[in-house]
Amino acid sequence: MTGIDQETRRLKFGQDPEEEALRWITRSTSGEMSDAEIRAFERWRQDPENARYYAEVESILGDMDRAVRPPDNVVQLRHRPRQLANWGRRFAAMAAGIAAMAVIGQQYLTVWQYDHATQGAARGHAELADGSKVELNTGSAIDIDYRGNERRVTLARGEAFFDVKRDPSRPFVIGAGAGEVRVLGTAFSVKREGDGARVTVIRGKVRVSAGGSHVDLTPNQQVAFGRGRNGAVAGVNAGELLSWSRGFLVFRGRPLAQVVAEIDRYYPGMIMLRNDRAGQRRIDAVVHLDRIDQWIERLEDSQNVTATRLPGVVIIS
Questions:
Q1: Side-chain half-sphere of 150: how many Cα atoms within 13 Å?
Q2: Which residues contact 14 (CB under 8 A, 6 or more apart)?
Q3: 93 pLDDT higher than 70
Q4: What 3-state class would DSSP assign to 127?
Q5: How confident is the model at residue 44 (pLDDT cuts 50, 70, 90)?
Q6: Considering the domain boundaries, does residue 76 fall inside one?
Q7: InterPro entries under this entry (predicted)?
């Protein structure tokens, strides 16, 4: 048995099938395979099971490539003329400085210009000067402006849950797009949606104003507003909708595809669901946001799916 045959046998019986297929894909696309390796690869892929795993992993990598591919209006430079190589090295130092400035600028636009902000899968908590508390959902930002007779917070993006300290002499006001929410002491959330927002009350009473009109909300009520209008008040289960502010999510009768999409925003990586049939199943779930991996493990048993873990991504199939 040749060294290559021994390596092929070790790969086949010594590794997980997906890892085995991933290794062959990596090697076969490197442009450095020897003739002996090519023959070994072809023999390996003649096994129907190996061929199936190879096709599945190849498809997954294709999905990931499309997910991170730059927009159509971005031109990728694929080749560098040999005569420009030296100039390119000099330019690289300049480009590194420009790139650092771009990163700093992006940080300012998304985080630093606000009093409190979250990015990525992170959530945040802030205790304000008057004792009021704010929980920031992922991708959220607020500015705080406390003055003599008013406490004002601007929700620039995302969603925030407010537990407001009562002070009748200093109303608490949240500005969000084309409207505002005014309270004395209560607990509620405001979620930006375009030029407006969606307000949900879990305790107390708030007044939502937009376009010259207003509506009052009490516990388990919700309203959405946009530029120049207030929507209809709806009854909701505020405890479930705002459970993220307490560190978990509650789902009742929701398609698995929707559940995974919502959980993905809180996961420090990417979760991909590649099983359409399983995605249509309606499930009940309570997911602790600090234990998402444990929920995925339980999902494998309860829904007969398989979770494949690769660096930075979990594929559920």
A1: 10
A2: none
A3: no
A4: strand
A5: confident
A6: no
A7: FecR, FecR_N, Ferrdict_sens_TM
Specify whether 120 is located in the same domain as 215.
yes
Report how many domains make up the chain.
4
Beta carbons of 272 and 261 less than 8 angstroms apart: no
Average pLDDT of the segment spanning 119-126: 88
DSSP conformation letters of 269-301: SEEEE--HHHHT-EEEEEEETT-HHHHHHHHHH
Per-residue CA distances from 21 to 25, 129, 300 (Å): 6, 56, 22
- Check pLDDT > 70 for residue 102: no
In-domain check, residue 73: no
CATH code of residue 279: 3.55.50.30
Least confident range from 43-47, 70-74, 168-172, 290-294: namely: 70-74
| SS3 at position 131 | coil
Task: Supply the range of the domain harboring residue 102.
Answer: 82-112
Phi, psi of 232 (to 5 degrees): -80, 145
